[in-house]
Specification:
This protein is mostly beta strands. The protein has a single domain, classed as 2,3-Dihydroxybiphenyl 1,2-Dioxygenase, domain 1 (Roll). The protein has 1 helix and 6 strands; from the N terminus they run βββαβββ. A 4-stranded mixed β-sheet has the order 3-6-5-4, covered by helices on one side. A hairpin with a 5-residue loop joins strand 5 and strand 6.
Length: about 90
């Protein structure tokens, strides 16, 4: 993605919403290592990042990085679960 440290890693065709069209297919991206992303992270697609982060906090987790735009594609956020694992959230812009 021009102007950022984020590179798409696309291994499967995508539809107009940017999601893979084949069932079970996974696409993703790579970004420069730095807190809170210091290792590969499982990222979960959600309809509403803010609502998902509120649910994480309500269940004892912590927000590591609140909602951030990723170009014009969507938004990402990161949280730490109750076992100390960092996970990501993704919300499409469309």
């Amino acid at each position: 993605m021009p102007g950022s440290d984020y590179t798409l890693a696309t291994t499967s065709a995508v539809g107009p919403d940017g999601a893979p069209v084949a069932a079970g297919a996974i696409n993703g991206g790579l970004l420069r290592r730095g807190a809170p992303v210091t290792a590969p992270i499982v990222t979960i697609q959600v309809d509403d990042i803010d609502a998902a982060l509120a649910s994480v906090v309500a269940q004892g987790g912590q927000v590591a990085l609140s909602r951030q735009p990723v170009g014009e594609m969507g938004f990402s956020a990161y949280f730490i679960d109750t076992e100390g694992n960092t996970l990501g959230l993704w919300q499409n812009a469309i």
